[in-house]
Amino acid sequence: QKDIPAANFIIHEIHCSRNIEVCRYCSESIPKSEMKNHIESEHVQVTCKCRMKIENSLLKDHEASACPLRPALCQYCDVQLTFNKLQEHEIYCGARTETCGGCGRNIMVKDLKEHPQVCG
């Protein structure tokens, strides 16, 4: 948007009404000649690998932060799995034990970060 001198406003308004259309989905002003392409590229419904139907323009954000099948790393072993399996894996993985080199006790992996403070 920019300021339009009053003398040119009527001409501008006529030009806009002939050439510009407001998208019914996102309310953006789009040239009429590009509206079909805009709707097909931005608002067409696609199906994510998780079977959720979503607008094409929102798919990348969904895949990165909301999709239950997005990749996720275990905080204990760095194995990559899907986000929907992460919690179950981390419960199991964090409960494994490793021998402490300092005191020789078996320590659960989930407690290894805090263990040096109480070791010995």
From TrEMBL:
Domain of life: Eukaryota
MF-aspect GO terms: zinc ion binding
GO cellular component: a single term: mitochondrion
Ranges that cross the membrane: none
A Gene Ontology biological process term: negative regulation of innate immune response
Domain called TRAFD1/XAF1 zinc finger: residue spans: 78-120
Role this protein plays: Negative feedback regulator that controls excessive innate immune responses. Regulates both Toll-like receptor 4 (TLR4) and DDX58/RIG1-like helicases (RLH) pathways. May inhibit the LTR pathway by direct interaction with TRAF6 and attenuation of NF-kappa-B activation. May negatively regulate the RLH pathway downstream from MAVS and upstream of NF-kappa-B and IRF3.
This protein's name: TRAF-type zinc finger domain-containing protein 1
Lineage of origin: Eukaryota, Metazoa, Chordata, Craniata, Vertebrata
